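Hi V.,

Quick status before I head out on leave. The structure for the redesign project is tokenized and pasted below; the design run finished overnight.
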């Protein structure tokens, strides 16, 4: 559901103060964040700031008014030059990770209106605030995906948001603002060699969508019952390198159906349910997707305006990635800047195209005033959402401090719990694990990364913790007193054999050296040096445990066949080594599940949700399937119920019972997959449509419930129109995408499409020349349960264009179509089912 922060709580506080029921002096007096030092003490009142210091509460200063009204009032007071400067950002901050791109764009202060300068590059926080030293460092994104735990992800990023805001309040980020350029990386890389794949949530659009919503809402504080946002996070890279299925580098030849089915869902969810405040674009072109405009994304009005704004109702900022405008192949000149802004690209904060060209383009009249106002409106709206124009005492987030809200015991505990829950047990032959401390008198820890911090986190986008618990340190702390721990911390095979021989067990830490953004993996095999190391240790006869530390899949048939116990530990963050040791010794029962399909060596792009004939997916290509992961206990599934079994509304509820039938406490991840059995177009043989992680004591059972809505059942027909087709749907409950334990079906008896009401039809011209463009506008209101539908423009009763729009019941949006008519005469134009308007064409 798309939600906008309401100001009900703020209004109550204001009313109580106004009525004298509470007084300003009774409110807790906290240190004012350094941001507010821009104002004189007399400007800050109990319920408003006299921003322009004129002694009058102007509408944009009135905290009781809706944000949109305040934005429009402030916008109306700005000159064209002031607006252009807010977008062009002539000042740049020092530091950051892309200085050559002009990193760290700052909107200048407007003293006469009381606007302080504000940075639109506020560091990274993919798994810890990058420039905050020290900071809590959580596991990497792909590890977080392996938890399959929405609640934990929400808590994790709420903690990260706390640290981010606390740093801003005392200016610990070199003057940076409150808009972070992470942590919601929503690409769906079917090509798992892509070097930024570990920043994502894996190969599945549904899993990515649910975790994206949890991340955004947690980081921004959407569920804190506070009328402001804690900080603004970014979803990226829209839609750079997403969905590609060939070798790197990736091209732009992505079919529109793939874009809409695979790439768009997570962004749509992040916007409409997560209320994410910023979308970052990449540099991918659209020359092979004519129905999506045929323009490079940063110059595409179809993508940036029609899809994001009109289709999904996005009201945040669209910014380009560092250097993305230049990479698009369009010259960085006045025309390039004007074209990008008019397409809907608000910000070039990490680049120089706007900085160097936009003011001149505006001065020469090359930019439509509407485009300028739209971009500035989006910038101002974000600052109002953050509460930066309201008295500091009204915003509880202003009370966050590094002393009280950074590296807290709770945050460190969350980092450890996330590392625990992320670990996937891939193999456990003859129950080698967990190890019994009492029976382990000697143990070998082997591998060049076993005692390196880089075994826990790649060298990008993370904060600096006060300590790292490496795998070796975690194991040394976990063993029983008196246990001998031998080490071999290199690729030296003879040294490894010497360390392993005669010990009760050998633990080999394997995995690739973490790649940077510009270094794709050549293949998914174990990196050079690790396979000889594993073979040498296994050859000693010592029971061997392989611990994978990586971000993308590791494919090794030999390892799967010969190593008795294999743990996927990912990049586990500052407490990663503790979690590894707890799993090895049974202090924690692993319950993580793979967010990837692990292919065998030499196999091309592989993913579980394939369509018939699309790829070869069988035992010859799959090493471990999506959703796979073992436990030290066993679970049974029963009593699958579907209600109703027949429906004309495409709204279905599902229940299933899961029971721990083993002897240890453990976590089950109940996975619900769906198949449209009678679809008129090719659809995946199964698609994830629900999951729930539950903790069960031995013998305990719980009933897990899922709810399928019409959008979960919908498809794109031959005309790419959204519909739920009548027919049979199969529900599958599994322990992985391949291990399906229960099945049942239900029927949809009638087609379901989105329902809209229309009003306020208008045209910008009622008399035009042949092929002269004019606008046809209307307000569209959602009235049905299927959220996504197609709104159509008709000329003389024939559909000329259509746009996809997402609206919930009661939600409305203004749409505009550009229309051209070639044939002279009188024509009737309309949108939807409204009575038409006559247009005279000369």
């Amino acid at each position: 559901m798309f939600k906008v922060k309401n100001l009900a709580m703020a209004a109550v506080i204001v009313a109580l103060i106004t009525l004298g029921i509470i007084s300003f002096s009774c409110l807790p007096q906290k240190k004012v964040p350094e941001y507010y030092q821009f104002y004189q003490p007399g400007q800050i009142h109990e319920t408003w700031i006299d921003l322009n210091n004129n002694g009058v509460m102007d509408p944009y200063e009135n905290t009781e008014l809706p944000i949109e009204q305040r934005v429009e009032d402030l916008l109306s007071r700005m000159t064209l030059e002031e607006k252009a400067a807010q977008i062009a950002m002539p000042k740049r901050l020092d530091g950051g990770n892309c200085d050559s791109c002009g990193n760290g764009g700052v909107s200048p202060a407007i003293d006469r209106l009381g606007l302080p300068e504000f940075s639109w590059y506020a560091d990274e926080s993919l798994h810890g605030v990058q420039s905050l030293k020290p900071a809590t460092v959580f596991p990497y994104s792909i590890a977080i995906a392996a938890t399959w735990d929405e609640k934990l992800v929400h808590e994790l990023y709420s903690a990260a948001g706390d640290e981010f805001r606390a740093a801003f309040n005392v200016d610990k980020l070199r003057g940076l603002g409150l808009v972070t350029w992470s942590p919601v990386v929503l690409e769906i890389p079917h090509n798992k060699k892509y070097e930024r794949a570990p920043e994502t949530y894996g190969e599945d659009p549904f899993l990515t969508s649910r975790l994206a919503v949890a991340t955004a809402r947690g980081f921004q504080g959407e569920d804190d019952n506070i009328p402001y946002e804690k900080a603004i996070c970014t979803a990226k890279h829209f839609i750079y390198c997403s969905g590609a299925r060939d070798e790197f580098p990736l091209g732009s030849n992505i079919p529109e159906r793939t874009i809409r089915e695979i790439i768009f869902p997570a962004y749509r969810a992040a916007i409409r349910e997560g209320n994410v405040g910023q979308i970052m674009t990449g540099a991918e072109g659209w020359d092979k997707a004519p129905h999506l405009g045929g323009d490079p994304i940063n110059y595409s009005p179809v993508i940036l305006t029609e899809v994001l704004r009109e289709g999904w109702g996005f009201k945040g900022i669209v910014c380009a990635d560092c250097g993305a405008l230049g990479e698009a192949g369009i010259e960085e000149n006045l025309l390039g800047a004007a074209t990008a802004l008019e397409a809907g690209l608000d910000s070039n904060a990490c680049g120089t195209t706007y900085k160097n060209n936009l003011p001149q383009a505006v001065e020469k009249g090359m930019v439509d005033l509407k485009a300028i106002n739209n971009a500035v409106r989006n910038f101002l709206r974000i600052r109002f959402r953050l509460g930066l124009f309201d008295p500091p005492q009204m915003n509880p987030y202003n009370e966050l401090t590094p002393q009280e809200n950074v590296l807290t015991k709770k945050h460190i505990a969350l980092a450890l719990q996330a590392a625990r829950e992320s670990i996937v047990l891939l193999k456990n032959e003859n129950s080698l694990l967990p190890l019994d401390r009492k029976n382990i008198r000697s143990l070998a820890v082997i591998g060049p990364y076993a005692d390196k911090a880089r075994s826990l986190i790649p060298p990008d986008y993370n904060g600096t913790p006060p300590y790292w618990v490496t795998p070796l340190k975690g194991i040394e702390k976990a063993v029983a007193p008196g246990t001998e721990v031998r080490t071999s911390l290199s690729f030296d095979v003879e040294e490894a054999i010497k360390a392993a021989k005669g010990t009760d067990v050998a633990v080999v830490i394997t995995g690739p050296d973490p790649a940077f953004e510009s270094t794709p993996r050549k293949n998914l095999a174990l990196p050079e040096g690790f396979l000889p190391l594993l073979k040498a240790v296994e050859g000693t006869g010592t029971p061997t445990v392989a611990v994978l530390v990586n971000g993308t899949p590791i494919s090794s048939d030999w390892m799967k066949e010969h190593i008795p116990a294999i743990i996927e530990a990912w990049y586990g963050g500052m407490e990663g080594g503790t979690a590894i040791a707890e799993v090895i010794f049974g202090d924690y029962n692993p319950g993580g599940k793979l967010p990837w399909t692990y292919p065998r060596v030499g196999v091309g792009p592989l993913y579980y949700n394939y369509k018939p004939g699309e790829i070869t997916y069988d035992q010859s290509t799959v090493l471990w399937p999506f959703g796979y992961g073992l436990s030290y206990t066993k679970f049974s599934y029963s009593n699958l119920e579907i209600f109703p079994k027949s429906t004309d509304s495409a709204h279905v509820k599902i229940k299933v019972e899961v029971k721990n039938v083993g002897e240890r406490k453990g976590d089950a991840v109940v996975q619900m997959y769906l198949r449209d059995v009678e679809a008129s177009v090719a659809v995946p043989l199964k698609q994830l449509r629900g999951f729930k992680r539950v903790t069960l004591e031995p013998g305990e059972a719980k009933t897990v419930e899922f709810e399928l809505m019409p959008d979960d059942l919908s498809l794109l027909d031959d005309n790419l129109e959204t519909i739920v087709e009548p027919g049979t749907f199969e529900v599958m409950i599994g322990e992985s995408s391949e291990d399906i334990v229960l099945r049942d079906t239900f029927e949809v008896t009638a087609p379901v499409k989105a329902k809209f009401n229309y009003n306020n039809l208008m045209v910008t011209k009622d008399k035009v020349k042949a092929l002269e463009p004019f606008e046809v506008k209307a307000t569209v209101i959602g009235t049905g349960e299927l959220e996504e539908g197609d709104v159509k423009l008709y000329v003389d009763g024939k559909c000329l264009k259509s746009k996809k729009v997402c609206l919930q019941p009661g939600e409305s949006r203004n749409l505009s179509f550009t229309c051209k008519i070639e044939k002279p005469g009188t024509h009737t134009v309309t949108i939807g089912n409204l009575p038409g308007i006559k247009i005279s064409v000369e």
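Above is the designed sequence. Confidence is low (pLDDT under 50) at residues 1-29, 95-102, 242-251, 286-290.

G. will cover questions while I'm gone.

Best,
W.
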